[in-house]
Amino acid sequence: MDHNIDKYITKRIADLNWQDKSLVEKSGLSKGQISKLKNGSIEKLSAETFYLLVTAFKDSFSTAISFTYPNLKDYKLKKYDQKNRNVFGSIMRELEVSVNSIEEISAKTGISEVRLSELYYRKGALEAFELILIEKAVGRKLGELFEKLYGKR
User: What pTM was computed for the model?
Assistant: First the structure.
């Protein structure tokens, strides 16, 4: 998904009257990485990098997301319809306790089940927009899962 992290960084540095050096110190990102982010040469924005930038600028996730991913502002989650089951399957559904399954999150967000499996079970690199969509799908406050993943370091 396209992002405007370059414009976000440029705007926030100007707003705060910072030099790149200040952002390097506050975010823990390298000068080279900040430079690549600012000049738009980073295609995929990792969730961790996004978190480090938002917290360095002391912005709310809502503000940062609306600037960086303007298309997500009005993103409507899709409806999750469980697959039709036969009689036995319907009886078993009554006994199941399943909330926020990979299947459900995939249906709501449009992120494939294969991609979610990579993120859950393998070493898939979580992109910022994916975590934002997952937060929406599971009914969490924007930034909550970012904080759980990256905030206790």
Answer: 0.86
